[in-house]
Write a structure and sequence with these properties.
Blueprint (H helix, E strand, L loop, with lengths): L36 E2 H11 L5 H11 L2 H6 L23 E4 L5 H10 L6 H10 L6 H9 L5 H16 L8 E3 L2 H16 L11 E5 L16 H4 L7 H8 L3 E6 L19 E2 L2 E5 L5 H8 L5 E5 L6 H6 L3 E4 L20 E5 L2 H11 L15 E4 L11 E4 L1 H4 L4 H18 L2 E4 L5 H25 L9 H10 L4 H22 L4 E5 L12 H4 L1 E2 L1 H7 L4 H5 L4 E8 L5 E8 L4 H15 L17
Parallel strand pairs: 4-5, 4-8, 12-13, 12-14
Antiparallel strand pairs: 1-15, 2-11, 3-5, 6-7, 8-10, 9-10, 9-16, 14-17, 16-17
GO molecular function: catalytic activity
Protein name: Amidase domain-containing protein
Pfam families: Amidase (PF01425)
Amino acid sequence: MGLLRAAGVVYKPVEQLDLGPDSNEIYVEADIKAPRMGGLLAKIFAWILESRIFGALAFYILKRLNRVHKFISNATVEEPPMFVPLHPYVDLDEQEVIEIDSDASPAERVQQAMNCLPLTSENSLDAFKFSCLWRWTIADYSRAYRNGEITPLKIAERFIDAVHESSSRPLSIAFFINYDAEDILRQATESTLRYERGAPISALDGVPIAVKDEIDCSPYPTTGGTKWLHKVRPCTGDACCVARLRSCGAILVGKTNMHELGATPSGINPHYGPPRNPYDPSRISGGSSSGSAAVVCAGLCPAALGVDGGGSVRMPASLSGVVGFKPTFGRIPHSGVLPLNWTVGMVGVLAGTLEDAFIVYAAISGHLPSHEPTTLPPKIHFPLLNSTNPISNIKLAIYGEWFNDCNEEIRLCCSNAVQLLCERYNWKTVEVTIPELEVMRLAHYVTIGSECSTALSSHLENFRGRSEFGWDARVVVDIYGAFNSNEYIKAQKLRYRHMQIHNKIFAKADVIVTPTTGMTAYSISKNALTTGELDYVNGGTIIRYQIAGNFLGLPAITVPVGYDKAGLPIGLQFIGKPWSEPTLMHLAFAMQALCITDYRKPKVFYDILGKK
């Protein structure tokens, strides 16, 4: 198709880019050319893409219309490729932090995290809960167990009853793909005995924690949201992050639902049902860690593990009104996680509060297994959230055109939150320009698509798995397989280029602040229930602010800051320098403290601690 070859962009050197507020670099909005497809239309589209006659033409048209040819395939990029977003460790001299012994056990790290939290008396805790925050935290579970108010076994029984009830609703919430009541009760019994002996392992002992079904956790298969992958890739034991939680005494309560293969941001799964949003069960909870977000939002667990390959922790966290935290690439061991996107995917935490995200992060962070890629082992610092000296002189980078590229309710809510934060702590905003964001989105899509297609290729060659796909995932995998080596290499060149751009931004500011998503949760269409759905336009709006965290391996966190007129949650995101997790947690904690009195209980909520 040489006669139809689209002209490619010639990228000028990064040194010539103006990243200041008056830059003449144009903000390029996403212009996604793809209709929403579900039901019969999704099936027809899959057949076209898989046709020997029409498939190649369809892929060519899709790439051209969506500017893949212009920005990537035919582009001239002088930068060298960067295949893995590894960051050399730099001591950032962060404020109000404490260095943690790198050889500390997970339980020891949990205790050190607890020591960093503000102390709260029993009486003031109750008053605080009733007036502000209706969900119970890890510290609440631990305190109730130690005081003999309730046992882990009783919590496990209530949890199992709640999950059963959620499946019996007119609109089943579909929190889990797999949970085993017998295994949950066994873990809870062992934890109860430890408390009776006065020897709990850590503050996580007996606390229910859910695990996305992209992460190995015995005794469950790891399906990746499919009906077939576990048949060709059996789970042989716990992932490293799960083993660390288990060593702290946490009760691993099952494998949460997810979008099949993490294919789109909706989180809808035609095989296991859609994990519905507890704020409005007719709407999505967001994906792909949809079940993990919903289970935390609904109060069944104070925290859950997810995997974030393209915002898949932060997007559902924001849409479901909880905290979502994705650390720096290489901070959390990835062994035992489905290798679907090995240079953009990262284990993350979804939690009801920043404190709970911090505690779980403390348990699962640490040295990587020897076979995982890394630079020099980074030091581990924890934020002193109990410090009486708030961090100062923080500079928040805002790219106005990008920040405002969301619906009006989100723009106003997030702008007000940033203003409130700056007024309260005397922090400053810095206006910047971050060019080529749409280019970065497309380069990330080429990367995650190529890696997923490669990871699945050996399985699909020897298995009839394609016929067992949901139709939406089938289309996505077909598209993933259409990227070639030239496009993959160009995408990695663009990765290096954008790393240099962001390094220049971080020379001006401590963090980049954005809304987390460009829209709130949208309604679940009826035909998506059986085939899944492809909604690239809404998906592009939801994923708009996520890409740098994954493509460049940067840490990022989202915290709820308000609601739209329909009562749906809105999140604010902070994107940090590599290894700046403590600063991000300080910022999120400060933001949470300013917004907590406005938090609302979702329509679907289970008070399994049973103290109210």
